[in-house]
Write a structure and sequence with these properties.
6-stranded antiparallel sheet, 2 domains, alpha+beta, Conserved hypothetical protein from pyrococcus furiosus pfu- 392566-001, ParB domain, 13 helices, 9-stranded mixed sheet, 21 strands, 416 residues
Length: 416
């Protein structure tokens, strides 16, 4: 792993604001309607900075909030423990991870491994926000290997609670850890570990581009803050880590015709009346199966053996990813790539099955994918492959605005 450091994070001043009014979800999973909702909750909501009216407006607001002490800076460096309690399909989970600074490392060095594609348009927009504000408002989500969960032990008396936030039935708790022995042991443990990016490929790629931009201004100086990014990291082996699929909805000109062409490559093994439930109970061969929702019917498809063998021959690793296999068939059946459908506003990436239903009621065709293991992500990343865009969804996502990280070109003076 690249160098890891504790840091003096910026955060909301709870004397001035109600923290539950100013935090928000990750910017890439909300609709414009939801963005407006969060901005209307408070004039200090983080979306006024993360998704501003203009980059200049974000800069003005940030400076104003700092001056008014809406945002304050921790005066002593620390590692931040993020604890997330939630329920999924009736089962309780408690996921723990750390937020600390991670030294930026180009992907080709093999210290930080991606698994999804990124698009320049998104990083262009994020880069302008970095340039104008000199701040990072949300964290990249990374995974590291810790089979014995060593890093999550002995936390009980080391932490000081900063926030406890209730959000959509989830409990998000943020603690600060300044215990020098714990911090040193954590950083030492992470020294020889690689980070697998779980979520935030565009954020990380933007940070690499921003570092290059800042080096052109200040030179290559390792002690500058723009060499680092704040990252939320969790053990890959933690059973509280849920990697869910991202589903799809498409507005196709001839959905019935698509279904007919699909049968050249896959066959229906089950058909039921559609109702929201845990569809994972129906999937047996998870890399080969998916569900299509059309006209109140749920059709469970499985790739035909001969076509699957063809995909495996082309790419034996990515053929373990259901979405990769499906997109091959989508292109062959429609003559269109998913990116083309997305550009035309005819494709949507959806995490919640209830949202899939809403889109289908509007005339879309819905595709539901099974859960795949985080170990598949690890395998893809180690092979230096990339899954299709928006393939995975780590549930739940961490909140935006819980901590802010300054990357304005200041010197980092942190002693371990």
């Amino acid at each position: 792993m690249p160098r890891s450091l504790p840091f003096c994070a910026w955060r909301y001043n709870t004397i001035k604001v109600n923290i539950e009014d100013v935090i928000a979800p990750q910017y890439d999973v909300v609709s414009q309607e939801e963005v407006n909702h969060f901005k209307n909750k408070s004039p200090y909501n983080i979306f006024h900075l993360e998704l501003p009216e203009s980059y200049q407006r974000a800069k003005e607001l940030l400076n104003s909030w700092i001056k008014e002490q809406i945002l304050i800076k921790n005066q002593t460096p620390g590692i931040y423990l993020y604890e997330l309690e939630f329920t999924y399909h009736g089962k309780k989970f408690n996921r723990k991870g750390f937020i600390n600074l991670i030294e930026l490392s180009p992907f080709e060095e093999g210290k930080i491994l991606p698994h999804e594609k990124v698009y320049n348009k998104v990083t262009d927009e994020r880069l302008e926000l970095f340039k104008n504000t000199g701040f990072q408002f949300s964290q990249v989500f990374g995974l590291y290997e810790d089979p014995e969960l060593f890093t999550l032990k002995n936390l009980k008396n080391k932490k000081k609670l900063i926030y406890s936030i209730n959000y959509k039935g989830e409990k998000h708790k943020l603690y600060k850890i300044t215990d020098k022995e714990f911090v040193k042991n954590l950083i030492k443990f992470l020294e020889d570990k690689r980070i697998y990016i779980a979520d935030g490929h565009h954020r990380y790629t933007t940070a690499l581009r921003y570092k290059e931009y800042m080096e052109n201004l200040y030179g290559k100086k390792n002690y500058k803050d723009y060499n680092y990014i704040a990252m939320y990291i969790c053990p890959l082996e933690d059973k509280n880590l849920l990697m869910l699929p991202t589903h799809r909805t498409y507005f196709l000109e001839d959905p019935e015709g698509f279904l007919k062409k699909l049968k050249n490559f896959a066959e229906v093994f089950k058909e039921i009346n559609f109702k929201p439930e845990n569809f994972d109970n129906y999937f047996n061969k998870k890399a080969q199966e998916w569900l299509i929702f059309l006209n109140n019917k749920a059709y469970f498809f499985c790739i035909k053996k001969e076509f699957l063998e063809k995909i495996k021959t082309e790419d034996p690793i990515l053929s373990e990813v259901t979405l990769y296999n499906f997109l091959k068939i989508l292109e062959l059946s429609t003559g269109l790539k998913e990116e083309q459908l997305k550009e035309k506003g005819r494709a949507k990436f959806v995490c919640d099955i209830n949202e899939v239903i809403k889109e289908v009621q509007r005339g879309a065709i819905g595709i539901i994918f099974p859960v795949i293991s985080p170990l598949v992500l690890k395998k893809v990343a180690q092979a230096k492959k990339r899954m299709p865009h928006k393939c995975t969804y780590f549930y739940p996502k961490i909140l935006t605005g819980i901590l802010l990280n300054e990357i304005s070109g200041k010197d980092l003076k942190i002693e371990l």
